[in-house]
C-alpha cells in the first residue's frame, strides 16, 4: 500500500510567485518531482521593482538563474538618503561593487516580472517540474487509502492529486495558511504604497544611477532604476487607512500629488511624470505564528509577509526555498519532521529581518526632534558603516 511519503508522489506547491518558483527549482534539484499550481490563469506583468540583495542572489546563483537576470537587473553604486522636507542629501550607503566584494554576490534591483520570467524559463527547461496555471489549491487531506490528497479547483473541475507534501507559497492572502491551526492572519499596516515606473530617458539625469530614499513625516519615497537601467521604479509610501487585497488597484496622479503635497519641487515633478499609478495596501503576517501542520509547510509571504522597509520580502522567500530543500531530500522518511526542521531553522532569522523592517518603518517616518536627531546621526555616518549595518542580512548564504 502507498503511504503519505511514497517517493513516486510529487511535492505540490501552491503559488507560482517568486517563492513558489524558486522552491520548485530547489526541490527538483534534490530529485523530487514537483507540481506548481497557480491560481492565476496567466502570469501577467503586474508589479514593479524588487531588490535582490546578495543573500537572495546566492540562492539564485546555485539554481543557475542569476546569470539570466543580468540583462534586466541594475546594480546601483549607492543608496542616497535625502530629507523629504529640505530636499538635502543626508547620507550615502555604498552598494554596487563595494557590496559585491564584501559578500561575493551582487546587489541588484529588478522588475518583479523580469525575475518571475527568468524563474519561469528555468522551470520550463527543467524536466520534473510541472506548472499548472488557473489551478487554485483549496485543501490537503488524507484519503481513506493512506494517500495524502491535495484538493484544487480550476474553471472546469474540482480535482485532487496524491502528493508527498504541500508547500503553501500562495502569498500574503494565502488560502493554505488557513489550513494551519492557530495561524496568524494578514494584518493591514495602515500604510499604502503608490507605485509607478517611468522610462529614464523621459526624466532629468538626476534620477539615473544611484538608488534614493527620501524621508519625511509619516511618509517616505524610494526610487531606483530597473530594466537594465532603462526605467525608474518609484515607490511612495504614506500612512492611510485604505485596504484592498490586490496588486493592481489604480490611482489617479492627482491623488498621489495631494498626498505628497509638502514635498520638494523636484520630487513632485517626478511624481507628475507618470500618468499611471498602482496603489497597494501594505500587510504583514507575524512570523511568530505556526508555519507547518503535518505535511503542509508555508513559506514566503504566506508564512511571514513583511513591510517593505528592509526590501527583503522576495529575499526571505528565496532563502526559504533553499532551506526547505535542504531539509527535504528526495528520500525523506518523515516529512512532517523535515518541515518542522525547516520552520525551526528559518523562523529566528525571518523574525529578526521582520523586526528590522518594522524598526525602519518607525525611523523613516519620524518628525520633529526625533527626525532631527536621526538626520544628524545620518549626516555623521560613513557610507561604509551604513553598509555594514546589514552584514547579517546580506552576508547570509544557503551553505551555512
Ligand atoms: C501580482 C503580484 C505583483 C507583485 N509585485 C510586487 C512588486 O512589484 N514589488 C514587491 O516588492 N513585491 C511585489 N509582490 C509581492 C512579492 O512578490 C512578494 O512579497 C515576495 O516576492 C514573496 O513572494 P511569495 O512567493 O511569497 O508570494 P507572491 O510573489 O505574492 O506569490 C504568490 C502566488 O500565489 C498565487 N496564489 C494565491 N493563492 C493561491 C492558491 N490558493 N492556489 C494557487 N496559487 C495561489 C498568487 O496568484 C501568486 O502568484 C507582488 C506579488 C504579486 C502576486
UniProtKB/TrEMBL annotation:
The protein's GO terms of the molecular function aspect are: monooxygenase activity
Q: Which InterPro entries match?
A: FAD-bd, FAD-dep_Monooxygenase_BioMet, FAD/NAD-bd_sf
Cofactor(s) needed, names only, are: FAD
Query: Sorted alphabetically, which Pfam families does this protein's record hold?
Result: FAD_binding_3
What highest taxon heads this organism's lineage? Bacteria
Q: Which residues form the FAD-binding domain?
A: 10-355
Recite the UniProt keywords alphabetically.
FAD, Flavoprotein, Monooxygenase, Oxidoreductase
Protein name as annotated: FAD-dependent monooxygenase
Recorded source organism is Roseibium porphyridii
The major lineage groups are:
Bacteria, Pseudomonadati, Pseudomonadota, Alphaproteobacteria, Hyphomicrobiales
